[in-house]
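User: New here, any thoughts?
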Amino acid sequence: MNDSIFVLHAVAQTVLVPPGSLFILIASGLLLTPRRPALGRGLAWGGALSLLLLSLPWAAHALTRAAGDFAPISASGTGDAQAVVILASEDRKAREYAGGYTVGDRTLGRLRYGARIAKQAGLPMLLSGGRVGKGDYLSLADLMQSVLSEDFGMSARWLETRSRNTRENARFSAPILRAAGVTTVVLVTDDSHMRRASREFTSAGIRVLPAPVSIPPLNDGFGWVDLAPSAQSLRSSSMAIYELLGQVEQWFALRDQPGRP
C-alpha cells in the first residue's frame, strides 16, 4: 500500500466509522435545516440517536460478537504450532517513560497474552508492527520487544517492522516465518480482529491457530446497566464496525486474487 492509498484509507475510515461518520451526519443535518427543515432535522436526529445507540453496552457487545466471536485457546490448543505471532495495534506517547513512546493498551493486552502462551508452550515469538506515521520513532514491533525485555524478562526471536496494516502484517511476516521453517503459528490479536488477520495469514500460506484476546463475556442476561451510555461502549462499537467494514473490503480483495474461486 503506497502512501497516497494509505492516506485515502485513513480518510475513508474517518468518514465511514463512528463517531466521525455520525458527527458528519449531524453537522450535515444542521446545515440543511434552514433550507430543507424536514430532511435536515431527520439527519441530525438520526445521527444523534445512532450515537446514543452505539454508546450502549448491549449494542457494543452485539457488534463485537458479530465481528469476532472466537473461543479462547485451550491449554493444549497450540498443537503443532511452531511459533507465536503477536500483532501490534497502537502505541501512545508516554511522559512517564522519559517522554517517549510505549505500547498502547490494546497492544499490551495482546503482548501479555502472547508471552504467556509462548512461555507455557516453549515457542519462539514473532512481533509484527511497523511505524504507521512518519517520523524517526521506533516501530511497534521494537516497542513491543522493549516491553518484553524490560517488563517480562523475555524476548522475541523475530521482529517484523515494516507493516502498517493487517494485510502487511501477513505479507511481511510470512517470508520471515517460512525462512525459519515455520508453517503453523498461534496468532494473537483481538477477538474482533482475528477473522481478518487469520484470513490474511492463511492467504499468505501460514496456517493459523487463533488465540484471541478481548473476547466478549458470555451473555448473562439483560440488565439496566446495559442501557447506561459510556465512552468505552462507543469505542468498542466503533472498533467492531471498523472490523466489519474491513471484513467486507477483505472479501472483495481476496476474491480477486489470482487462483482463488
About this structure: The chain has a mean pLDDT of 90.
